[in-house]
Amino acid sequence: MICLIDPKIIRENLEFVKKNLEKRRDPSIIAKLDSWVSSDKEWRELKQKTDDLRAKRNVITENIKQAKMKGESVDALMTEAKTLPDLIKASETKLKELEVSNKALLMNIPNILQDDVPYGKDGDDNVVLRTWGEAVKNPNLIHHGQLATKLNVADFERAVKIAGEGFYALKGDLALLNMAIVAYSIELLAKRGFSLVIPPAMMNRRAYEGVTDLNDFESVMYKIDGEDHYLIATAEHPLTSMLMDETLEEKDLPIVQAGYSTNFRREIGKHGLDERGLFRLHQFDKVEQIVICKPEESNAWHEKLVENAEELCKAFEIPYRVVLICTGDIGTVAAKKYDIECWSPREGKYFETHSLSNCTTYQATRLNIKYRKSGTEKEFVHTLNATEVAIPRMLRAIIENHQTPQGTIKIPQALVKYMMGKTEIKV
RNA sequence: GCUGAGGUGGCAGAGUGGUCAAAUGCGGCGGAUUGCUAAUCCGUUUCCUGAAAGGGAGCACGAGUUCAAAUCUCGUCCUCAGCGCCA
User: What is the ipTM of this complex?
Assistant: First the structure.
């Protein structure tokens, strides 16, 4: 039987786990933990009982075998043996029920936070670590969606006509810019040792449960009707879960990959006017950084992933800032998380374009991904994922930050070579 | 989608109701020995529970028959070969 999560870690460090989870300021998490602890105790007692019954059966079975070989009567033994299957079955059934419910509880308990995650309640308590570029407000700029439509490089109306709200069509030079950003980011990461992966766009439930917050099944993911398939919400999900149930060799770590995929998200919720256009979409392309490494190396990798994303923003000449997410605002999966926010000169505020997480062993325990340390000793790996570039949001940043007074869009120098030499998007 | 064959330990590959955690070969780890970069020999090589001794589970997955299942029955998934369809 595969163990999706390692209960031993929680049993042995219960007080520590509890203290840590309290920092998330969500009492329901502690309630779940407490509930698991008592349920786990019950399970272990029942497990002992069940194993004893099985042991008894094994002994009788062996006796029957011996008696038969010697030609002795087995009637008395058989009578005794026949009483056992029902008892065992009942015990096993209850044990299994407990296993299922315990697993469900465990799966709902979030990751252990790292010490340097700032304590806080919500997004307001996140800490801005650094800013880059000149953040100048210019309310006179044209909304990026309107400008793209005007320049005939995007068609929202017809996309909505055939697919509904949250969909868009890129055309001409803006579609080309989408590809250019992909090509540039992949080259940037390749230079830093990332190998490119284009993963499946659908995954089954088991694989998906290992990498995501379970609530996402209801609020984020698209399910294929009548099949055990979900459309991926990010390349992180297939790239990480592809290693499910594997024991990696130490020499094969770290696994450093760039995932390119089209992503699908339902993202149920209402959004204001300024979220229209290329911001909150049901479908978008993204290049993602994925690292699978030894535990002691994950923090260093985390910093490198942030560097890689910052470098891209700089290359595209977009002012940005790096934010460290606080304990109350961090998601279920991450132990520590940075966001990068790019500058919107039209609105005069930063908007989220990147999310960069160290998931430590959270995904590895659920997916059962280990590596072999020296000899026979095994240990869970750490997984990290970080946006390198989410294309539509970067398109928005470019359209706003490189909009000219003439109503055209200047192509950042770094991208010209991927744009068939074009330097400007205009009518 | 149809037809046929098959899914056994890290790999290869035996095993058709109790003698099977499972022969044999290769590999990994630990040790012994040897004066020569090797050979040989011994041990070990999954998961759960338990302080330990021990106990339990595990032959794709799930259910069933049986005192007893890798082995028999049913369902599901996957792989291979052939056919069909197809960007």
Answer: 0.85
